[in-house]
Design goal:
Layout (H helix, E strand, L loop, with lengths): L12 H9 L1 H25 L7 H24 L12 H7 L6 H29 L3 H25 L5 H21 L8
Helix pairs in contact: 2-3, 5-6, 5-7
């Protein structure tokens, strides 16, 4: 049983260069991504309350993402970085969601796999951030996030396998990995997580 994910396309070096040139803007976007990740885990509980076996893990994931939100907020306060007045649309996630099927069961599979792919991309990018930072405290923080995001990438696949066979999950997972690579490669370079 495969729980770990891969990415089809590595992030461009221009992306990490943009992040390091405007780290404060990256923090603002990162803060919003953590908020959305927590809300996403909670939305699975609201939309699929019948999936009782995975509710504890979804709650744990939502709480962990909210803790990351708090940690990024505290980091921003320390650096005198204001919260953004508003956040724009996340074109990366929107492009992935457009690929979802409409049937309730198929949509559940697709949304869980999108969550897995997004978390895996986050792990890859947090690793790049950790490796590029010179500040040791920030390095430790982004290394912790890298490990956490990688774990989240795994758990969404594991949760799906409670309800669906590997034959139903893995081909669709490969599809999303390939499509995610095309989407991330086409995105404009900016100091944002996606």
């Amino acid at each position: 049983m495969k729980l770990n994910l891969d990415i089809a396309v590595a992030s461009k070096t221009e992306w990490i260069d943009a992040v390091m040139k405007d780290f404060d803007a990256f923090l603002q976007d990162h803060l919003d991504c953590e908020r959305k990740a927590s809300a996403m885990a909670m939305s699975f509980i609201a939309k699929y309350p019948d999936r009782k076996e995975i509710i504890p893990e979804l709650i744990e994931t939502a709480v962990e993402e909210l803790e990351h939100f708090q940690q990024v907020y505290q980091l921003m306060e320390k650096r005198n970085v204001p919260m953004p007045a508003s956040m724009g649309k996340d074109h990366y996630v929107a492009a992935l969601i457009k690929l979802c099927r409409s049937d309730r069961e198929q949509r559940f599979i697709d949304r869980m796999l999108i969550a897995s792919v997004v978390e895996t991309r986050g792990a890859e990018r947090f690793r790049l951030v950790a490796e590029a930072l010179e500040d040791k405290e920030l390095q430790r923080f982004y290394k912790m996030l890298w490990v956490s995001e990688a774990k989240h990438g795994h758990i969404f696949v594991k949760m799906l396998l409670n309800y669906f066979s590997e034959e139903e999950v893995y081909p669709r997972l490969e599809y999303f990995i390939e499509e995610e690579g095309k989407i991330i490669d086409a995105l404009p370079i900016r100091p944002a997580l996606h």
